[in-house]
Amino acid sequence: MLEVILWFIGIVIIVPVIYLVENLILSAVPGQNRSYPLQPIYRLIKHFSKTDYHNRPLTRWFPVGACLFALVTLYFVSAGENILLVLSGLVMMELFILVGACSTKEAYGIMAAQRGLSRLTVWSFALMIAGASLYKAVGTLKLSLVVQYSAGNVLLARLPLVATGLFAAAMIKGNLGYFDFGINANTMSFLDTALYTPYGGRSLGVIQLTQWIETGIWLKLISYFLPWQPWISFLVSAVFYLAAMLLNAVVPKMPWKKVMMNSWIWAGGLPAINYIWLYML
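-> structure tokens emitted (281 positions)
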């Protein structure tokens, strides 16, 4: 139990550090906007200091529900529980966010929810295929037993495309690179740029906190497929994710329909190919 608590606390601490390092590096790069070293933390605190844009008490509870499911799912992945429990928690978390966006009855909120639902189908499919591939390769869906298998056998050698697909799914959820569905509140537009988030104030702060927790869930999940010790594997996955965040600053934005196609190819197609390959061995 102590190890699970340490993992839980460690992930909660490390993920904000990743965002702080990204902000620090990008601030030092010529051509990028300069900001304070603690800008991500300051932005989160600023959200919590404001009131919500919409005077709808019920809408405010959807982000809270999403955050609670994120915390429960973080416990599941830290404890090495069944991967289907992780999938269920992530899906429930996402549904709370999408329903809350629709409840605002704003055009931007409804459009963001529609794109979010399209995104949900991709990464949930990737997780289901990953679970099926794990069961085929290891004979179990329990992540704690997967670690024991990886210690004596290189799981990554059998499931390389599954691990790649899960990393692509993490990029999808992080709105990074060619997997940005345009619902990260960078601009306001009905076109192919980012949509304005339907949340604001404290609700937006809770959503941002939920996204940080979810990032930690994905990084921990990916680390189960890596061959090193658990903490080393997690740090390696965190470094790769940080690299993807830094490259996101120079990657041009794409129309969301092309993003959808890229997402299905990388997050959906690669794990499916790996699953078929396991049956052909």
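The radius of gyration is 18 Å.
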